[in-house]
Design brief:
The chain is an alpha+beta fold. It has four domains: 417 residues, no CATH class; 91 residues, Multidrug efflux transporter AcrB pore domain (Alpha-Beta Plaits), CATH 3.30.70; 109 residues, Alpha-Beta Plaits (2-Layer Sandwich); 60 residues, no CATH class. It contains 23 helices and 16 strands. It comes from Nonomuraea solani.
Length: 803
């Protein structure tokens, strides 16, 4: 299959390149339209009570969460001063009515909560008209007027300004990450390949993947909301994996060219070997990310869909566009050589590692497992929180406004626990008797009005709960027979005490005149989110593990290897989660990475990291196992196959991991804490996977399992032959012509089976020309008869060949 694809790509190489260039030029403007069209939030479960509460707030009470919060302060004049009132109200009156739906100030409500404790600050709440995009446009139109208040210090925050800051920060982070990563990647690629042309090709494929990410996310905004956090995540994955996949394809192609293959044969054989592995790797990573579609949260669904799509774009670019370019370049892929070719050197360190692991597999298995378990231990005290203004940098204006409100004004004044009480009402008179059918509408009797008195018993009970400071009637809905209560409390919304308070309210028995009580707010939303994630996570695990297991079975024809790979992934993921808790929840890297520790980890980001790390951890194991399987099929010796697979892939996989770490490290400089958290999680996973797991744990476990690695019952063998993507064996290479004799003057020194063999006087060794290990070289010596020597495969010297 892959040979046919390679042949088709080669023969259509110019068409592929022209179409790819045209698509990039035409779609680039569309991708750039993404900025400003993404949505914040998306962490809630649409079916949860807290989501219902937020919807009722908007539909029944005209909304309780303002779009814009304008904070005013004067160092000497207090808010109660008429001059303060005049300055604020004059500025608000100048706001165009086509953008603003409602405004609330201290002077319109008389609420003491809207004045700071020192009396020198107050704030106004502004509700904008329209949907999310219309509100963002409206805020952009009035932002300057909001700040134009004479003699007052003005700061602007709230949900819409925060989203604007998130969009701007995301664009700035993306530009900075690319500016950091691209030069470093180019230098490392030149070191790996030695050639400027070869080094530039992965970057071209990476840029195509980034453009594909922007276009795909932009198209997604037409059919669904796309999280503002998705851009950095999707771009990071697309760029990193595109470079990784290109690295493996390039290495295989250059090996074929070095062996004397024609351009077409090199492309075809590259697709049949590296191309096959890249395809299985891309499908495995995309499968893990598509598992996020099982969750109801927009944040996870949009990132899962976008990330899976960009992984497939990176895979297609590496399997179609890159082979087409290689078909055109041929041996010129090695042009503009700048350094020695480190990427083609094998053996050395990895030969020593393979030999050591094969000699002491049990020791490596025990020690590495103990290290991974110790890294995972901090996850045992994990605490999950929610995303708030603290994901932005400390210098963010919207974040400063939110922190000022929480510090200088009434505690949680903008984040009460919402309690919606649906009152059981009765008719004020007997219902009218129905009239004749189809003769007008039947009158409906009026029902009793809803008043604060209907919820007085509940209010009394709520006030007695721990940490409750006040309970206020925040709204009445006569049409829906509902009363909204705002429960004030003196704890952080993400604290254990606040969560227990929400649970206590939900556990209260209903009053006799109450039909239903719905509890919402930030803390309730966090509890509902955790319940939703825990309910969906097992299904995600079942689906992803099942599909991944089938892909691994199809790739390797074994029932043991898929199970072992999944177990290895559990250890990698556990180590990543443990480091994340230590770094972010416990705050040990807060000063290094410049973020604010909240004492918790965002739950949805944890699930996202699970999906991403699962896919990436499977990535490099696929490349290792592919080479091990090829050696197993060739030799039938499990130990030799594992050692050879590790030795042959060690250099290139390490290079690929290093390049991916550069990309992730660049994105970890983002100003948004969520992106930092994801970057650190991926960074740790790749380091652990590329060193401890792939280099030590996997080979040690395969050495201990022996032939059981490839166990497959006979009925399953027949099934595997039906689904296996089989590539025909390559034709044998043409016979080599006999080598001309190399005349060596006596005395000379050669190597006989690894030991010096001296003829004549003890002089310096005579250098011999490089030779293929499979091709004998004639050596004429002056004493005795002609002898043949063969280069040792390990590069240790020369060996006599008996005649």
């Amino acid at each position: 299959m892959f040979e046919r694809v390679g042949r088709l790509v080669y023969r259509s190489r110019w068409t592929v390149l022209v179409l790819s260039l045209a698509a990039a030029v035409l779609l680039a403007p569309l991708g750039l339209q993404l900025f400003g069209r993404m949505a914040d939030g998306g962490f809630e479960d649409p079916r949860a009570d807290s989501t219902t509460s937020a919807r009722w707030n908007d539909d029944w009470y005209g909304g309780h969460a303002p779009d814009v919060v304008v904070l005013y302060r004067h160092p000497k004049v207090k808010a109660r001063d008429p001059r303060f009132k005049k300055a604020v109200h004059d500025s608000l009156r100048r706001l165009p009515g086509r953008y603003v739906r409602a405004m609330t100030t201290y002077w319109t409500t008389g609420s003491k909560k809207m004045v700071s404790r020192d009396g020198h600050s107050t704030y106004a709440l502004v509700t904008l008209k329209g949907g999310p995009q219309t509100k963002r446009d409206g805020y952009a139109a009035i932002e300057r007027r909001l700040r134009g208040v004479p003699n007052l210090y003005v700061s602007v925050g709230g949900s819409v300004p925060l989203l604007t800051e998130l969009n701007d920060q995301t664009a700035a982070d993306l530009a900075r990450a690319e500016a950091i990563a691209m030069p470093v990647l180019l230098v490392l690629l030149v070191v790996v390949f030695g050639s400027l042309v070869a080094a530039g090709l992965p970057l071209v494929v990476g840029l195509l993947a980034v453009l594909g990410a922007l276009v795909l996310l932009r198209l997604l905004t037409e059919v669904t909301e796309v999280s503002v956090f998705s851009l950095n995540v999707v771009t990071m994955l697309g760029l990193g994996l595109a470079i990784d996949y290109s690295l493996f394809v390039l290495k295989a192609f250059r090996e074929e060219i070095a062996a004397g293959a024609s351009n077409e044969r090199a492309v075809v054989r590259t697709m049949a070997t590296a191309g096959r592995t890249v395809a299985f790797s891309g499908l495995t990573v995309a499968t893990a990310l598509l598992g996020l579609l099982l969750f109801p949260q927009m944040f996870l669904r949009s990132i899962g869909l976008g990330a899976a799509a960009v992984v497939l774009v990176a895979m297609v670019a590496a399997l179609v566009v890159l082979p087409a370019v290689l078909g055109v370049l041929g041996p010129r892929v090695n042009a503009l050589r700048l350094t020695p070719d480190f990427g083609r050197r094998e053996g050395g360190l990895w030969h020593a590692v393979a030999s050591s692991v094969m000699r002491r597999p049990l020791l490596y298995l025990v020690v590495v497992t103990a290290v991974l378990v110790s890294l995972a231990l901090p996850f045992l005290h994990v605490s999950f929180g929610n995303v708030d203004h603290r994901v932005l940098p400390a210098a963010s204006e919207g974040r400063r406004v939110a922190e000022t409100l929480d510090r200088d004004f009434a505690k949680n004044s903008m984040a009460p626990i919402d309690v919606h009480v649906l009152v059981e009402r009765s008719f004020t008179e007997a219902p009218a008797r129905p009239g004749p059918l189809a003769q007008g509408h039947t009158p409906i009797s009026a029902v009793t009005s809803v008043t604060p008195a209907d919820v007085r018993p509940l209010v009394s009970r709520l006030k007695k709960l721990p940490h409750v400071t006040a309970v206020e009637v925040a709204g009445l809905s006569q049409d829906d027979g509902a009363v909204r209560l705002a429960v004030r409390y003196d704890r952080d919304p993400m604290s254990a005490e606040a969560r227990e308070l929400v649970r206590s309210i939900r556990a209260m028995p209903l009053e006799p005149n109450t039909r239903r009580v719905v509890v919402g707010g930030i803390t309730a939303a966090q509890l509902d989110l955790q319940d939703s994630l825990l309910a969906t996570l097992p299904w995600m695990g079942l689906v992803v593990c099942s599909v991944t297991g089938v892909l691994l079975f199809a790739a390797f024809g074994s029932l043991v290897l898929p199970v072992k790979a999944l177990l290895m992934n559990v250890l990698s993921i556990g180590a990543s989660f443990g480091v994340i808790v230590w770094a972010f929840q416990d705050g040990h890297l807060a000063s290094v990475l410049d973020f604010t520790s909240t004492g918790s980890i965002e739950a949805t980001v944890t699930v996202l990291i699970l999906a991403v790390v699962f896919g990436l951890s499977m990535d490099y194991e696929l490349f290792l196992l592919s080479r091990v399987r090829a050696e197993w099929l060739r030799t039938g010796d499990n130990t030799a196959a594992v050692a050879a697979g590790l030795q042959q892939t060690g250099g290139v996989i390490t290079s690929a991991a290093l390049l991916l770490l550069v990309v992730i490290g660049a994105f970890s400089t983002a100003g948004i804490t969520i992106v930092k958290l994801l970057g650190v999680g991926m960074f740790v996973a790749i380091v652990v996977d590329a060193t401890l797991v792939r280099a030590l744990l996997v080979p040690a476990s395969m050495r201990l399992l022996g032939g059981a690695n490839w166990w497959l019952p006979r009925p399953w063998r027949r099934f595997h032959r039906r689904i296996e993507i089989h590539e025909p064996e390559p034709p044998p290479p043409p016979p080599l012509p006999p080598a001309p004799p190399v005349v060596v003057d006596v005395p000379s020194r050669l190597t006989l089976r690894g030991r010096p063999a001296i003829f004549g006087a003890d002089t310096d060794p005579v250098p011999l020309p490089a030779a293929d290990p499979a091709r004998p070289t004639w050596v004429k010596v002056a004493v005795g008869r002609d002898r043949r020597v063969r280069a040792d495969p390990g590069g240790a010297g020369w060996t006599w060949v008996d005649e």
